[in-house]
Amino acid sequence: MKEIIAIIRPKKVTRTKEVLDSLGFPAMNAIRVMGRGKQRAILDEVNFEIDDPGLLEIEGAMRYIPKRMVSLVVPDTEVALVVEAIMKVNHTGQIGDGKVFVSPIEEAFRVRTMEKGDEAIT
Amino acid sequence: MKMIRAIVRPEMVEKVVDALDESGFVAMTKMEVIGRGKQKGIQLENIYYDEIPKTMLLLVAEDNQTDKIVEIISDSSFTGNFGDGKIFVSPVDEAYTVRTRSSSL
After folding, report:
1. Predicted complex ipTM exceeds 0.90
2. CA B64 to chain centre
3. CA geometry: angle at B92 spanning B29 and A34, to 5°?
4. Could B99 and A95 be called an inter-chain contact, meaning their C-beta atoms sit closer than 8 Å?
5. Is residue A86 part of a domain?
6. Of all helices (H) and strands (E), which one includes residue B94?
7. Cα torsion for B93, B34, B38, B50, to the nearest 10°?
8. A46 inside domain
9. At B42, phi and psi to the nearest 5?
10. What's the alpha-carbon Rg for chain A, to the nearest Å?
């Protein structure tokens, strides 16, 4: 099993959910987070009007950018499919598209039925 | 690659972030969390706080930078009292940048 943690734009969450749902991965966690990348949260990345054009010049003028962190646990064989789907939906070519991390999960349990391993997540 | 999750005091976060920034670790994600540690929350006179608000910082770094990041975080968030927080390091197999579709940090 692998956990896929994707940090994406908030407005792409609905589309991501739809696509993952249609691929057969309806289960996921989503949490509102604040973050920044290599570019230190540039103002260009947000979609509201900035009054002061001088601010746009400064690197790191905004400390954090609101993002959504989506995490889901999938069997090893499905990792490539899910990562590809997330990347395809969230790709805009602009800075701030986000990151996708894949990390190993040793064991998973479904509380209701006490199932273990891959059965618990499918 | 390793994922570093640091649960620190909310008031120390900006200090930690600035310290990481100075050493060149700019990219990170933060989120508000609620938790408790070994001391089962905190008792202040008559009131018992079971769940204490904390901030979780999440960053992913190359293996050889992990020690340095852990050191920076623990130095900058240290007060010496209960509730300074915890740092967890876990493996990350792959990392992708969505914009460039490349498999790197």
Report:
1. no
2. 18
3. 10
4. yes
5. yes
6. strand B94-97
7. -160
8. no
9. -145, 145
10. 17
Paired tokens of A101 = 């991390």
- The reported pTM is 0.84
Residue A58 domain-assigned?
A: no
Asked if B31 lies within 8 A of A31 by C-beta distance, the reply is yes
How many domains are contained in chain A? 1
Q: A64 and B30 in contact by Cβ < 8 A?
A: yes
Q: Tell me the shortest Cα–Cα distance from B7 to chain A, in angstroms.
A: 14
pLDDT tens sequence across B58-105: 999 999 999 999 999 999 999 988 889 999 999 999 999 998 888 877
CATH code of the domain in which B51 resides? 3.30.70.120
A17 lies in some domain:
yes
- Under 8 Å CB-to-CB from A106, ≥6 apart: which residues? A1
CA distance B2 to B58: 11
